[in-house]
Design a protein that fits this description.
The complex is a heterotrimer of chains A (281), B (334) and C (267).
Chain A (H helix, E strand, L loop, with lengths): L12 H21 L13 H8 L1 H34 L3 H13 L4 H12 L4 H9 L2 H4 L6 H24 L4 H9 L4 H30 L2 H7 L6 H7 L9 H25 L8
Chain B lengths: L3 E10 L2 E11 L4 E5 L6 H9 L6 E6 L2 E2 L10 E4 L11 H11 L4 H14 L15 H14 L4 E5 L7 H18 L2 E6 L2 H7 L2 E6 L2 E6 L1 H6 L4 H6 L4 E4 H8 L7 E4 L5 E3 L8 E13 L2 E8 L2 E8 L11 E6 L5 E2 L1
Parallel strand pairs in B: 3-8, 3-9, 6-7, 7-8
Antiparallel strand pairs in B: 1-2, 1-4, 4-5, 9-10, 11-12, 12-18, 13-17, 14-15, 14-17, 15-16
Chain C lengths: L1 H33 E3 L6 E3 L2 H8 L1 H34 L5 H13 L4 H10 L9 H28 L1 H10 L4 H29 L3 H6 L7 H9 L3 H34 L1
Antiparallel strand pairs in C: 1-2
The chains are: A mainly alpha (281), B alpha+beta (334), C mainly alpha (267).
C-alpha cells in the first residue's frame, strides 16, 4: 500500500533541520543559559534577570527601548493614518507615485539612513551649519546624538512601513457607509469617529505591534549613529557577545529573553488583532 | 458481470462515518449518476473510486481487477472536476497531451488523438489558447476532453456543471451525453440536481447520509420513490401519513407514508368519475412555476400541492371550491 | 461636490508633505555625494570624484560581489527547502501546514539583533561546520527570510489550487512527485520569484547579522559602507546612493515581474 512508503518524509528534513538548528535550538539554548550563573558554573539562578531589572544601565536600556519603540510607532501610525486616508481618497496618478515612493524608501534604513541624518543634523551637518549661520537655534543645536535624534530616525523608517500596512485596511471602508452616515445627517468627522476608526481599529493595533517589534529589535541605525554610547536593549544585548568590553554570555542571554518576551507580546497582539479572512466583517 | 463493483465500502473522516457499507455495481457502457444533497457522500465515493481518497474498509473492482490499493495514476480512470483544474501554464493542446505524453505515446498519435478530442468538444481553433483566456463553459469542455483523450476505462464527472451558468449547462449536458454515446464510455456522474440526473442517466443511485437510498432508472426513481427521503428529494412529492389520507379519501389506510406527485391530481369544477378517489377542496394559493401552475389546496384541513399545465391565466381562482381526483396507483406507499 | 473637492485638495497636500519628508534625506544624500563642500544653503564645487574613486576601488566591488553571493545562496537554499517541505504538506499532510507556519513565524519574534546573538552564543565555539562563520551566516539569513519565502510560496500554492491540480495530474497518470514538481512548481515560479526578490532586498540591506556573526572578517557592501563612514562623508554618500540604486533595481525587478504576472493571469 502506497502510504506505507514514507520516504517522502525526507523532503521535510532540510527544512526541519534548518529550523531546529538555527531557530529553535538557539532560542532554547539562550533561554536555558539565561538561568545559569555568570561564568558558566553549572546551576540555576535568577541573578541575571535581577541584574537587568535593578542595574541602572539596564533599566535605562529597557526604558529607552520601550520609549523609542512606543513613540516612534505612535508617531508613525498617526502619519500613516493621514497618508493612508489620503490615498483612500485620492485615486489618480499621485496615488501610484506615492505608493512607489513608499515602497522605495522602505528600503532606506539602517546604516545609510543614520548617515543621511548625520549629514543633515550631525555636528557638521548641513542643517546644523545653516542653523548656526543664520541663527536658527533649534537647527544649530539639534540633539541628533541622543534618544531624541534616534527617535527621529526611527520615525522615518516607521512611516513607509506603517503606511504600506494601513493602506489595504482602508480598502475595507466602503463608500456606502459614508453615504449612509451622510443620509443619517452625519458629516465626515462623525463618520470617522463612529464608523471609520472603530472598523480600522484592529488593523491599527495590529500595525502598531508590527511597528513596535520592528523598532524594538532595530540595531543598525542606532549603532551607526552612536556605537555603544546609548543605552538601548539591542545595543546592550549585542555588546555582551561581540566587541571590546568583557563578554557576559549568560547575562546577555537574559537580555535576549527579555527582548523575546516583548516581541512575543507584540506578535500575540498582532495575531489577535489582524483582520482575519471571513471574520466578522 | 459488473464492470465496476464496489463492495461494502466504508469511509471515516476521524469519527465521521461518511460512507456506510456501500454496495454498488455498474454495467459496462452505462451512464450512472450518483445523486444526492451536498454532504451525502456521493463525491467522496467518486473520489474513492478515483483513488484520491483511501477507503477505510471494503473492496473496489474494476474490469475484473482489484484496484482497492492501486495508485490513482495506475487505475486508468479519467476524471472531470467541478473547478475544471486545468493546468494554467499549458495551452489547451498541452493540457490534452499531458496524459498521453506520460504514456510515452509517439507524437503523431498524440496529435491525432488531441485533434479528435478537441473536435468532439467543439473547441477547434482554440488549441493554442491558455485556459485563462477561455470562458467557464469552454474550460469545462477542455477538462472533459482532457478526461476522455486518455481513453480511460471509466470517466468520473464530479459535479462538472455546477460552476457553469444555466444556459451553458444545457448544451454541455447534451455534449457529455453525446460523447458518452459515441465512445461507449462507462461514466459515473455526480450531481445534486435531480433534473440533471433525470435527463442524463441510464441509472440513478440516490444517496442519503452515506447510504444508497434507492437505485433505478430515472423513470423508476421518479415514479416509484422507495422512501420519504427519495420522494422529497425527487419531484416535489406530497408526502402524507395515513391520517391525512383518511381525511382525504374517507377510507381507512394502513399506517405508513404515502407519496403523491403534484401533477397526478386531476382538478375540475365538474364531477370527476374517472379517478379512484374524488375529493372536494378549496384553493388557498396559486403560483406559476414555469410551464405549470402550482395550486395549494385545502381538503378537510389537509394541504396538498397540485400542478396543472399553465394553459390560461385563470383556470381556477383562490377561494374556488372544486373537485380533486387521484388514482390509487399514483398514491405510492413508502 | 464642493466637499469632495476640498477633501481631494487636503489629500493631495497630505501626500505631498509626506513625500517631501520621505525624499528629503535621500535627496540630501545624493546632493552631498556630488559636491565638494556643503556648509551653507547651497552646496559648492560639483564633482563626480566620489563616484569615479568608488568605481575604481576593487575593495568596493569585491564587497558588492560578496553581498550578492551572501544574498543569493541563502535565498536559493531557503526556497528549495520550503518548496520541499510544502511538497510534503500539499501532497501528503495538509494538516502539517500549521506546524510549518508556526516555524516560519518564529523568526518575527527573534528578528533584528536577537537571532544572530543567539546563534553566535550557541555555535561560536562549536566544531566545524557549525563553528564556521560562513555556515552560521548563511543559515541565519535563511531563517530570517523564512517568513517571506514561506508566505510567498504558500500564497501562490493556494492561488493556483495546488491540491486540485495535483489530483488532476494524478488522474492523467502522473505520480504525485511528478505532479508537484512538473505541474505545480512551473505554475508558481513567477510568483515565488517576486517574494524571493523582496527577501533579497532584506539580506542586501542587512548590517546587524553580518556585523554580529562575521565582524570585519567578511566585508559586505554594508560593512564597507560602515568602514567608509569613518573616512569620508562624500564617499559614504556615494556608496549609499549606489547601494540604494541596486536595491531599487531589485525591487523594481520584482515589481515588474509582479505586473507581468498579473497581466498573464488576466489574459
Amino acid at each position: 500500500m502506497r502510504s506505507k512508503r514514507k520516504t517522502y518524509i525526507l523532503a521535510l528534513a532540510p527544512f526541519l533541520l534548518l529550523c531546529f538548528l538555527f531557530e529553535i535550538i538557539p532560542v532554547i539554548y539562550t533561554v536555558v543559559r539565561s538561568f545559569i550563573p555568570e561564568g558558566g558554573t553549572p546551576g540555576f539562578t535568577l541573578e541575571n534577570y535581577i541584574n537587568i531589572f535593578t542595574g541602572k544601565l539596564y533599566q535605562r536600556a529597557i526604558a529607552n527601548s520601550l520609549l523609542i519603540s512606543v513613540l516612534s510607532s505612535v508617531i508613525g501610525l498617526v502619519v500613516a493614518f493621514v497618508g493612508a486616508k489620503a490615498v483612500h481618497e485620492e485615486k489618480g496618478r499621485l496615488k501610484t507615485v506615492f505608493m512607489s515612493i513608499l515602497n522605495m524608501v522602505s528600503n532606506f534604513s539602517g546604516v545609510p539612513l543614520a548617515f543621511a541624518y548625520i549629514i543633515m543634523f550631525g555636528n557638521i551637518g548641513v542643517m546644523t551649519m545653516v542653523g548656526a549661520n543664520y541663527g536658527i537655534g533649534f537647527l544649530a543645536d539639534f540633539p541628533l546624538y541622543s534618544v531624541w535624534g534616534l527617535l527621529m530616525i526611527y520615525v522615518y523608517f516607521q512611516i513607509p512601513l506603517s503606511t504600506l500596512l494601513l493602506i489595504p485596511a482602508f480598502d475595507s471602508i466602503r463608500k456606502e457607509w459614508k453615504e449612509a452616515v451622510a443620509l443619517l445627517g452625519g458629516g465626515p468627522a462623525v463618520f470617522w469617529r463612529k464608523v471609520g476608526i472603530p472598523v480600522l481599529f484592529p488593523s491599527i493595533l495590529g500595525t502598531f505591534s508590527v511597528l513596535f517589534a520592528n523598532a524594538l529589535a532595530a540595531y543598525a541605525s542606532a549603532y551607526a549613529l552612536l556605537m555603544n554610547n546609548i543605552s538601548l536593549l539591542p545595543i546592550r544585548l549585542s555588546e555582551q557577545f561581540v566587541g571590546d568590553i568583557i563578554q557576559r554570555p549568560e547575562f546577555g542571554s537574559a537580555i535576549a529573553v527579555v527582548m523575546i518576551v516583548f516581541m512575543v507580546l507584540a506578535i500575540a497582539v498582532q495575531n489577535k488583532m489582524m483582520p482575519k479572512k471571513g471574520g466578522k466583517r | 458481470m459488473a464492470y465496476i463493483e464496489l463492495k461494502k465500502i466504508d469511509k471515516f473522516y476521524g469519527d465521521n462515518h461518511v460512507l456506510k457499507g456501500i454496495d454498488l455495481k455498474i454495467k459496462k457502457g452505462d451512464f450512472v449518476t450518483l445523486l444526492g444533497p451536498s454532504g451525502c457522500g456521493k463525491s467522496t465515493l467518486l473520489r474513492c473510486l478515483a483513488g484520491l481518497e483511501q477507503i477505510s474498509d471494503g473492496q473496489i473492482m474494476l474490469d475484473g481487477k482489484d484496484i482497492t490499493n492501486e495508485d490513482p495514476k495506475d487505475r486508468k480512470i479519467g476524471m472531470v472536476f467541478q473547478q475544471y483544474s486545468l493546468f494554467p501554464n499549458m495551452t489547451v493542446e498541452e493540457n490534452l497531451s499531458f496524459g498521453l505524453k506520460l504514456q510515452k505515446m509517439d507524437s503523431s498519435e498524440i496529435h491525432r488523438r488531441v485533434k479528435d478530442a478537441i473536435e468532439m468538444v467543439e473547441l477547434s481553433g482554440k488549441e493554442k489558447e491558455y485556459p485563462g483566456s477561455l470562458s467557464g463553459g469552454q474550460q469545462q469542455r477542455v477538462a472533459l476532453a482532457r478526461g476522455i483523450v486518455i481513453r480511460p476505462k471509466v470517466l468520473l464527472l464530479d459535479e462538472p456543471l455546477s460552476a457553469v451558468d444555466a444556459k451553458l449547462r444545457k448544451s454541455l449536458q447534451t455534449n457529455i451525453r453525446m460523447i458518452h454515446k459515441e465512445l461507449g464510455l462507462t461514466s459515473v456522474f455526480v450531481t445534486h440536481d435531480q433534473d440533471e440526473a433525470m435527463v442524463m442517466s441510464d441509472v440513478i443511485h440516490l444517496f442519503h447520509d452515506g447510504r444508497i437510498e434507492q437505485s433505478g432508472s430515472p423513470v423508476e426513481v421518479y415514479t416509484k420513490p422507495a422512501t420519504s427521503f427519495a420522494a422529497g428529494f425527487i419531484g416535489n412529492y406530497n408526502i402524507l401519513d395515513s391520517c391525512d389520507m383518511e381525511r382525504l379519501t374517507g377510507k381507512e389506510w394502513p399506517s405508513g407514508r404515502i407519496a403523491i406527485r403534484p401533477e397526478t391530481f386531476f382538478l375540475s369544477k365538474n364531477e370527476i368519475t374517472t379517478e379512484d378517489y374524488c375529493m372536494r377542496g378549496t384553493i388557498t394559493d396559486s403560483l406559476p412555476r414555469g410551464n405549470v401552475l402550482r395550486y395549494t389546496i385545502s381538503i378537510n384541513d389537509v394541504e396538498i400541492y397540485a400542478d396543472v399545465l399553465f394553459r390560461s391565466i385563470s383556470m381556477f381562482d383562490i377561494g374556488d371550491r372544486l373537485n380533486i381526483g387521484v388514482s390509487d396507483h399514483n398514491c405510492v406507499r413508502l | 461636490m464642493n466637499v469632495e473637492k476640498k477633501q481631494n485638495t487636503g489629500a493631495k497636500i497630505a501626500i505631498g508633505v509626506i513625500i517631501v519628508y520621505l525624499l528629503l534625506p535621500l535627496a540630501m544624500t545624493m546632493i552631498y555625494s556630488l559636491f565638494r563642500e556643503w556648509i551653507d544653503i547651497m552646496p559648492t564645487g560639483f564633482t563626480l570624484n566620489a563616484y569615479t574613486e568608488l568605481f575604481t576601488d576593487t575593495l568596493f566591488w569585491k564587497a558588492v560581489g560578496r553581498t550578492i553571493v551572501i544574498s543569493v545562496v541563502p535565498i536559493v537554499l531557503c526556497t528549495v527547502f520550503v518548496l520541499l517541505a510544502m511538497y510534503v504538506v500539499v501532497v501528503y499532510h495538509p494538516d502539517w501546514n500549521k506546524m510549518i507556519q508556526i516555524l516560519c513565524t518564529v523568526p518575527y519574534a527573534i528578528q533584528g539583533v536577537i537571532l544572530p546573538t543567539c546563534v553566535l552564543s550557541l555555535y561560536s565555539s562549536a566544531p566545524e561546520p557549525f563553528g564556521n562563520r560562513m555556515f552560521m551566516l548563511v543559515s541565519t539569513y535563511m531563517v530570517v527570510i523564512l517568513p517571506y519565502v514561506y508566505q510567498g510560496i504558500r500564497n501562490n500554492l493556494n492561488g493556483i489550487g495546488a491540491a486540485r491540480l495535483i489530483e488532476a495530474a494524478q488522474m492523467l497518470g502522473a505520480s504525485r512527485f511528478y505532479a508537484f514538481f512538473r505541474v505545480v512548481i512551473p505554475n508558481i515560479m513567477g510568483g515565488v520569484t517576486i517574494s524571493v526578490m523582496l527577501a533579497m532586498a532584506i539580506v542586501f540591506g542587512d548590517f546587524v547579522i553580518i556585523n554580529t556573526l562575521a565582524g570585519g572578517h567578511f566585508m559586505t557592501a554594508q560593512m564597507y559602507l560602515y568602514d567608509v563612514m569613518k573616512k569620508s562623508g562624500q564617499r559614504t554618500c556615494a556608496v549609499i546612493v549606489l547601494l540604494f540604486l541596486v536595491t531599487l533595481i531589485i525591487s523594481a525587478g520584482a515589481f515588474f515581474l509582479q505586473s507581468r504576472e498579473k497581466d498573464r493571469k488576466d489574459r
